[in-house]
Amino acid sequence: MKKAFSLLELTIALVIFSIIFMLIAKPLREFYLLHLKSLEQNEVILKLNQTLLNLENILLKCVNLEFTSRNFSCFLKDDESIFVLENGKLKLVNSMLVLKNNMGFYSPKSNFSYFLQNKMDLFKDRGGSFYVLKDGKVELLNPENLQSEGIFYPLKAKIEFKFEDNALKFTLKPKIFNENLKQEALLLDFVRDFKLREQNGVLWIKICVQKTYFSHCLEKMVSL
């Protein structure tokens, strides 16, 4: 009798515990999912904003921009630097600082060699030639064999963006017209949609991101 009573008590206790667990488990699960959604929402919005800002900064440095609704490419110019070629000598006119001997910064003013050396070190490019924009055209210059005179805007690289495999990717080409030294990277993943459209001299960029618990779209306007 005592055994039977103990077994009955145990059964009742298990039933009560199961009911309590079921009552608690549902709100706990909902709270956990809500927390995940909140974290994912913050992450998505932050990444979208940062990506659009990055694209805007890149587009503001673009020349000879070409784009479709899904991708774009352009040449990145160095806005801080201008080359002036006089009497066969190339002078650099800018206000940028260059690290010298790993000890301090140096303003090269009209000294072109530091600029070229920095570029060669940055991209591990030992060729010595570089691309510039002159009168709206891209030209390859060799400091040892300069033929014409005028004002040149140095180009850092060609950059190409494309939307594929639910990701926004880019390729950086320091050599501009060939594949040597090119670098490829992922800018943003989990991209559901990416669109470019031009309207009244303004480029609209729209990016949509789809994750497990949250999806969102943001659009930004960039003046061309």
- Overall strand count: 14
Cα shape: elongated
**String of helices and strands:** HEEEEEEHEEEEEEEE
Provide the low-confidence segments as ranges.
95-99, 103-108
Q: Biggest β-sheet, characterized?
A: 9 strands, antiparallel
The helicity comes to 25-40%
Condensed summary:
This is Periplasmic protein. InterPro entries: N_methyl_site. By secondary structure, the protein is α+β, with helices and mostly antiparallel strands.
Comma- or semicolon-separated keywords:
224 residues; alpha+beta; 2 domains; three-stranded antiparallel β-sheet; 2 helices; elongated; Periplasmic protein; transmembrane helix; N_methyl_site
